[in-house]
């Protein structure tokens, strides 16, 4: 018997024990029995956690797209691989079969090679949620180019810094993108971004909005004519297990975004395994994850995980509120979706609308519903369970991160009894531990601590692009020998985990990770600003929103505070993106600081939350009087 599918709770415990006692046998067997390899590995895993040095399936040779596409062709060639559901419900949905996906990816791979892209080159993909996005990613993987997808909501300067960080040679974008009743000028953003990107030689432009765009001679090419001229066959590059597959940027608690690097074989094995189990995937299912492919959730559970399992996966271009609040439920009804995977922020925003929206559609095809990206509060959990799952679909509350590559802690549906707001139990192979402030492992149950993982897992990020030291410092130094997640968690009386939230300076707003430092950096660049501190505070829909405490320079022309608030937010929007806008801005005359000059964010967080009960020890503050002033003027 293999370990690929967990059938019941007894088996879960059996697999779990095996995976801890003999991780090499456990993952080795899964890898051997469920994928095609050009060459097997010498060793399942080789690691030194202290050095943040991890390798899986050492010396094996593989191509992930052979596993996502080619091997399904004999049995599932005509099966739908991707359903494209456009932004506008009046536009026809597109069904792309595995055969068609093969030829599309082959053509795109040939175009990339013809345009000078080789194994190891970085390709930036800045596209809306259209089939070309999936095809471009897979084509990169086909020829061994490293894809760096940038969410198409990021501003030009955010794009510039990401392209320059990993020195992309090419950008794949589109004329524009649709989002609800808006259309976004993506090519214009790329043009602006590329003014400061010396490494980019070529830009391939897909057509989506049919808007007129600037095409720079010798640099920009329309994609379609190149594809039309390409051959629909392609020999995949033979990749080493540890060859880079992609870079994906995530916010850090210091200024620069971190380019998390994922490699080939380990990522492949664990995304496939988790998809199969956590969504209980069966052959005729239709899987829908509403994330954007620009985030890790989309990489792992719109594309790689589903395709590795020969599944049918939906790419949805739209938003939950367009043309009305029934849109998600209409799509489930229309495509007979069997698994639905979304974020708490979307659930909360739809739960506040009339229940008629969800009740009027047929959701009876659903079997499993999932949540990801932030803690799901009890109220949202129940609404999701009652109105979407109709109390018959297990909710998989899946905890994981860009860094972990795939799901780590989650119920296995029909196996693990669920509990509202709990991500429950670790997947086989995952060894979570809770740590106290003295860096000791906390044993037993009914305890809280910092969540760490003490043994490597196949899909973990291998490094931060170009900065291994930062990778080590950020994740492996707080608790030596262990991976520190940055999250706090509690373990209940039966050993279930509940993630309580970030313990660092990252705030999750509407499911997006935002480091407060880069936002502060952007604000501080405004000519009227002397200094700023950003903290998160609870928000009904977004989970958290941002509160800014800002010290102004003495500049007369900025006396109009309302205007200044607007200007600062525009500044944030153009430096980082609209998702980073502040909900509240308070102008202050000082910030609470320790004698060493560190801002006491703990106090600011309490003020932002409106909790004035206990500021803890303020004796180390250099300027304790400022606390009352800030508190009294809170907005
Ligand atoms: C948070 C998204 C509670 C957590 C896949 C983590 C969650 C961060 C959950 C990673 C969950 C994700 N319950 N919190 N089910 N899932 N988080 O990198 O703080 O965008 O560290 O990856 O989201 O966000 P990222």
TrEMBL record:
It is an enzyme of class 6 (ligase). The keyword Oxidoreductase does not apply. Residues 70-462 form the AMP-dependent synthetase/ligase domain. Its EC number is 6.2.1.1. It comes from the Bacteria. GO terms for molecular function: acetate-CoA ligase activity; AMP binding; ATP binding. This is Acetate--CoA ligase. It comes from Flavobacterium limnosediminis JC2902. The lineage of its organism: Bacteria, Pseudomonadati, Bacteroidota, Flavobacteriia, Flavobacteriales.
